[in-house]
Design brief:
The chain has one domain (4-148): Rossmann fold. It contains five helices and six strands; from the N terminus they run βαββαβαββαα. It has helices spanning 13-26, 57-65, 77-85, 103-118, 131-148; strands spanning 4-7, 30-34, 46-50, 71-73, 89-91, 97-98. α1 packs parallel to α5 and α3 runs antiparallel to α4.
């Protein structure tokens, strides 16, 4: 059975709640990985893994543990690329699938925007997490779980 891996450092609370309910409902082993303890309900299926402080420590832990066929939930594009290279599936907390067909273009755009910001350009940040984002994510996660558990 595939596992769910969550890059919990930047996972919105509402998405975390959706993931926990889905993991319980489908009896799917789920790991929330962060550089701090993530508050989670007691569960047979959901675990928190706090890693040492350090740049990308949580990302490195996920890449070391994730297996082909697992699902990673993250918006961190370099982490997503590393997971895809290991054969995992990747979804953002907005329900967007990241895969070998779109990840390189996304990473290149992120790098371009970083260059723009470092040159003083104001590019804005991500839009706020909306009810529509929550619905899209919940539906995408349910579809993945229905196909893979």
């Amino acid at each position: 059975m595939p596992s769910l891996w969550v890059d919990a450092d930047a996972c919105p609370k509402v998405a975390r709640e959706i993931i926990v309910r889905a993991a319980e409902r489908t009896a799917t082993p789920t790991w929330f990985v962060a550089n701090h303890t993530v508050p989670l309900p007691r569960s047979k299926w959901v675990r928190s893994l706090a890693v040492s402080q350090g740049f990308d420590a949580a990302d490195d832990e996920i890449v070391d543990r994730i297996q082909a066929g697992d699902l990673l939930i993250t918006s961190d594009l370099p982490l997503a690329m590393a997971a895809i290279e290991r054969g995992a599936k990747v979804m953002t907390t907005r329900g967007e699938a990241l895969n070998e067909n779109n990840i390189r273009a996304r990473v290149q755009m992120r790098d371009f925007m970083e260059t723009m910001r470092s040159s003083g350009e104001h590019t804005g940040g991500p839009k706020a997490y909306s009810d529509g984002d929550r619905r899209e994510f919940a539906n995408a996660l349910d579809r993945w779980l229905a196909r893979n558990t």
